[in-house]
Amino acid sequence: MSATLDPVTVATSEHTLPLHAGSSVVAPETLLDPGMCLTLRPMKYPQFYDMFRDGIKNTWTVEEVDFATDLVDLRSKMSPAEIHTIKRLVAFFATGDSIVSNNLVLNLYKHVNSPEARLYLSRQLFEEAVHVQFYLTLLDNYVPDHNERAEAFAAVENIPSIMKKADFCMKWMDSIEGLDTLQTREDRRNFLLNLICFASCIEGLFFFAAFAYVYFFRSKGLLHGLASGTNWVFRDESCHLEFAFEVVNVVRQQEPDLWDARLEEQIVEMLEEAVDCEAQFAEDLLSGGVAGLSVRDMRAYLGYVADSRLQRMGIAPHFNTKNPFSFMELQDVQELTNFFERRVSAYQTAVAGEVAFGEDF
Q1: The domain containing residue 125 runs over which residues?
Q2: What are phi and psi of 23, to 5 degrees?
Q3: Cα–Cα distances in angstroms (integers) from residue 200 to residues 102, 104, 306, 345, in the given order
Q4: Is residue 348 part of a domain?
Q5: 56 vs 5: CA distance, rounded Å
Q6: Is the pLDDT confidence value at 332 over 60?
Q7: Does residue 361 belong to any structural domain of this protein?
Q8: Percentage of the chain exceeding pLDDT 70
Q9: Does residue 279 register a pLDDT over 70?
Q10: Are strands 16-19 and 23-24 parallel, antiparallel or unpaired?
Q11: What is d(CA 6, CA 333) in angstroms, rounded to the nearest whole number?
Q12: pLDDT value, residue 331
């Protein structure tokens, strides 16, 4: 007989499911309790399941993006300074979503003890993979020189403004990477800080700043392929933020002692650091001078976005700047209307056999 413990088993009406130590078929008391709850009925967090279903409706593929006019723009319509901006931007994109994916797998999935939430995180990981493919395709199209493309893929090692952002990301990822379970109050606070950095700073600030550059060029009639793909990435990222902030809300309701004045101070400090990182990146992107964009305006925009993240968590604005980019004010109207109506037929597939959805589980 083996010296190891037999797996825990759970009898059901049909068969027996093996569960490893630490697993549970009973919903934990709080979202961050250690273990791996497998129970989807009764559903404790239906809001996460609804987000998962909405994510599926948002499906898109890189093959739908047409870069043909972008190449014409890059060859004949854009200045060297504008091309520098775009190449730096796609160099950041090339590794940015890979960092996000690693954090999802290594630090978030194993600690959010809800099968509904893990369904959403699985969907998010798929979306991040599509984003990586999109940015890979961007580089292949925009940077035909092999040596220059290799430098772009190694941007976190050789471009100082991107290195600074990567170091910022890694600092917060590393804070909980060695934790298998969140046993202590301090562990859970560190998890919250990781998730808030992930949502507010990395996806919610770094990527939203990048979107601003893309939509600036679109407002000038340039790079429509980049803009169309970014529309879908923008929509995905907006959903990712909503999920992350909902996790934060649930944890705050269940464990209010984790959220105190010191945590809010740390969140503000984190966003200050993120704004500084992104402002340095703006200095690099705009170093050649791009008419209509300035580092000053970009810093104001960053403060505006950072304050919106703070307010989303019930924290008072800190930067107190206004959005200087009128072309971004149109974004929600342009990109969030008619999406499902326009694309619903593209993802309808025939179903064979008899399917009944009205039966009770």
Answers
A1: 44-336
A2: -85, 165
A3: 17, 15, 7, 34
A4: no
A5: 40
A6: no
A7: no
A8: 84
A9: yes
A10: unpaired
A11: 57
A12: 58
User: Of the candidates 148, 289, 305, which has an alpha carbon nearest to the alpha carbon of residue 211?
Assistant: 305
Listed in sequence order, the residues at least 6 apart from 141 whose beta carbon sits closer than 8 Å to its beta carbon are 67, 70, 71
pLDDT at 15: 34
Is 26 domain-assigned? no
Q: Residue 319 corresponds to which tokens in the numbers above?
A: 């930067």
- The 3 state secondary structure assigned to the chain is CCCCCCCEEEECCCCEEEECCCEECCCCCCCCCCCEECCCCCCCCHHHHHHHHHHHHCCCCHHHCCCHHHHHHHHHCCCHHHHHHHHHHHHHHHHHHHHHHHHHHHHHCCCCCCHHHHHHHHHHHHHHHHHHHHHHHHHHHHCCCHHHHHHHHCHHHHCHHHHHHHHHHHHHHHHHHCCCCCCCHHHHHHHHHHHHHHHHHHHHHHHHHHHHHHHHHHHCCCCHHHHHHHHHHHHHHHHHHHHHHHHHHHHHHHCHHHCCHHHHHHHHHHHHHHHHHHHHHHHHHCCCCCCCCCHHHHHHHHHHHHHHHHHHCCCCCCCCCCCCCHHHHCHHHHHCCCHHHHHHHHHCCCCCCCCCCCCCC
- The CATH number of whichever domain residue 113 belongs to comes to 1.10.620.20
Q: Which of 295, 129, 278, 314 is nearest to 205 (CA)?
A: 278
What is the rounded end-to-end Cα distance, in angstroms, of the chain? 39
Roughly what angle, to the nearest 10 degrees, separates helices 295-312 and 261-285?
150
pTM for this predicted structure: 0.82
Q: Is the peptide bond before 80 cis (omega within 30 degrees of 0)?
A: no
Does pLDDT of 161 surpass 50? yes
Joined together, the tokens standing for residue 84 give 């520098």
- Alpha carbons within 13 angstroms on the beta-carbon side of residue 347 total 13
In a domain, 6, yes or no: no
Number of domains in the chain: 1
How many Cα neighbours within 13 Å face the side chain of 294?
5
